Structures are given as C-alpha cells and as structure tokens.
Amino acid sequence: MSSLPARLTALALLALLTPACSGPQPARSAAQPPPTPFVIDGHNDLLIHFTTDSQRAYLGPDGYDIGQRTTGQVDLPRLRAGQVGAAIFTVGVLDTVDRIRGVQAVTHLFREIAARHPEALAVVEDSASLVQVAGQGRVAALFGVEGAEELGGSREVLRAAHAAGVRSVGLTWMHTNALGDASTDSARWQGLSPAGEAFVRELNRLGMLVDLSHASDSTAMDALAISRAPVILSHSSARALCPAPRNVPDALLQAVALNGGVVMVNFVPYFTSPTHYTWYEEGEARWAEFQAAHPTGDSARVLMAAWEKAHPEPPVTLAEVADHVEHVRRVAGIDHVGIGSDFDGMYSKIPGLEDASRFPALLAELARRGWSDEELAKVARGNFLRVLGAVERAAEGGRGGNRPQ
After folding, report:
1. pTM above 0.85, yes or no
2. CATH fold label, 38-272+318-396
3. What pLDDT was estimated at residue 55?
4. What are the strands, taking DSSP E only, across 293-345?
C-alpha cells in the first residue's frame, strides 16, 4: 500500500452507433462477446508512461512503445483486441510556470505518438471525426485535462487548450482548487466558486465537455445548474454500492439524467467494492501512522509491508463492475450510462478487467444479464457520442438539447 494516492498520486451516422434490433434477442453465453463496432473509454491515463520517474517532465514520443504489448494496461494491440474505437486520453500539464506552453507541449507529444502509428491511432477534435476514425478500425484520441488546476483555473489557458485540441476538462482533481471543491478534499467554496461558474460557461461556449468526476456533490450540482450542455462523469461509479466519496450518489445520478449527461463507470477496485474501500482506507490510516512515527529511513515501509501481508487485498470481481453499470442504468436510465476505465491510472486490477483488451468481457456479462444489442451499443459508445454532439451544438450560444434523441 505504500505506493497508493499519498501512496497513489506518485502514480463515441447513427447506423454505425446502434446495431439493428428487432424482436427478442437470442441468449448469449458469458464467454461470447456481443456484437459491437467499437467501445468509447471515457478515461485513459496512457501518457503517465511517457513521464520521467519524477513525473515532472515528459519523455519523447519514443520513450514508451505502444505499438507492442507494454508493461502497462494500454497499448495498441490491446486497444484493438478490446474493440476500443475511441478514448479520452488525459494530457497532464507538467509546466506550471507557463501553462499555455505546457498544454501545447503535451498535446504535441501525443500527436507525435499518433503520427508514429497512423494505421492505428489518430487525434480527433469532434464527434464526426471520431466516428470516421473509429469506423476505419483505428483508435480516435480525444484530449482531456483531469483537473482545471492544471490550466491554472484560467479561461485564457482554457482557450489555448481548446486551440491545442483539448475537448474535455475536469473541474477538479483530488484537491479543492480555485474553481470548486473536490470530493476528496475539504470544502472551501461549498460548491463552485464564482470563477468556477465562469469557467463552466466558457467550456460551454467553446464546445468542450464539462467533466464532473472528482468534483464534490455540491460542485457537481452547481455545475449542472449552470451548464447549458450535457455533462460527463468520465470515470465514476455508484456510491450506493461503494461509499467512496469519488462515487456518485443517487440524487446526482438523477440530476445528470435530467441534464442529459452520462456517467461512465470505472474499473478501479477501490471505487467498486465496499470491502476493498474499507481495506484501503484502513491501510491509508496505518500508513499515515507509520510515517509519523518513522519519518526517515525504511521503517515505515517495512511496517506497511507487514500490515499488508497480514491484511491481504480483498478480491473484486468483474460482476461487481457490472453491478455498478446496472445501478446507474436503474437510477439514471439507459441513456445515461457509459464506461470510463481509468486504465493506467490504478494501483491494482480487477480479474477479468485487467487491461484495455477486456472491454468485451464486461459487455458479455451485461449481455448475459439480458441487455439487448441496442442497449449495449448505448453503454459502449452511443450515450457518450450523443453527449459530445450536444456539447458541440451548444457552443457559441446554441442549445445542446438535453434529452436523448
């Protein structure tokens, strides 16, 4: 556990979208993946492998070869095997002195990576290009910033990020910032700050996705009250099933549905299983104790290793992830649930959902539970694409249209 957030931080035309469906669907075994042209993953942290060990600078585009199987969870062979047609790839801004230069540098880096694999990967900036690239059997990469603090909370930097191709921004990450309160930090604004309200309006004007994953409940509710376009929660699960504060309570699920948005369920054990959540939180407490008692040397790590040996990590199953998908569907509706893995951003893996090749396994489990091909198409890609299109229509004073078509 010594490697986890104190320990852890040091770490989607319609014909293509929805298959023809008429009459009852034949039964399908759990081992048989349902037919699906492509999956859209709401959150992918691949670029973490292109940083230095200190995570303070980026390596060049050849610093990590995604053309072959890698040591991480994401690479082109596994994206292909997982039927991934698109994903939001996080682009961390490491230059805190000149954030415009920083966002330009990281987006340029990803474009260089894509240029080395033109047969398999392409950067896109709108829904039409996404559908075109995915229809060619390639992966369409949308850029997302996980936490507006990486943009300094600045609308000027936000506009530069949009010009560089960024199309999704999370209002917060793990810590409360100048725009609003985070779900895993103390409240400073009791929701969105005035600057946060202006930032949401600018995201709408630019046609960028407002991502509420990591935001506190009050921050998310404030953003929903202001946004004139549907929002996303790119990698969040259901708090009714697991009490992690990063998860979404039912009241917020219902509010997202009224907004027309989508909640994209993630694959992180800590956000999936209440047993795992309790184990993790206890481990965090022990780690803090050991560090306080032994601020220097290796004693804290030795004690933590002993604690972990005596308290093994509880197992978490693919079926539990499917339970979260079904809960979001039950509370928010079939039009408001998607998938946001958080691959390459997690400290441990769920058996059966170990890496980007495993999306079909989750869809197969949902099919085994009675989901139709049309319903699977919605959770796999259709709902996100609807939201992205609505966000684009809402730009520059338009209305996105909150209800599913």
Report:
1. yes
2. TIM Barrel (3.20.20)
3. 80
4. 337-339
